Amino acid sequence: MTLTFDGTVLVPVADPDDGERTAVALAPHLSPSSTVVVVNVIEKAGGAPDKASVEQREEYARDIFERTQGPLEGAAGTVETVILFGTDVVETIMDAASERAVDAVVFEPRKGNRFVELLTGDVARRLVRRASVPVVALPRTDD
Description:
Elements lengths: L7 E5 L3 H11 L8 E9 L10 H19 L5 E9 L2 H11 L4 E4 L6 H7 L2 H7 L5 E3 L6
Parallel strand pairs: 1-2, 1-4, 2-3, 4-5
Helix pairs in contact: 1-2, 3-5
């Protein structure tokens, strides 16, 4: 079975490597009529001091988007990039998916340390549990 996205997909990315890997994995599944909305969530501390300035985080997001757009050129009809702000990454992603009426949220799972997942919560698992639209995990390409 070949999976092809013809509609709008929201693609959350965390860092430049994640963005590029996800874009490479996603590109073969896109059609010229598809729209890809690449998002990076800048997590706000909710009252506590942030780890970095908003300007630094926005610049980092632009670096992520630059690396992500290359593999998507020519594969999708439209590629948009959006910086999101929120105190809960999963909630922020799903809110954006609902607001934009996307057909699916698509990501490539990152390698994770099980101990870290137990301490911080597995974002991918929470993303699937909180889903209001289909969530598609692309096969990892670098294992």
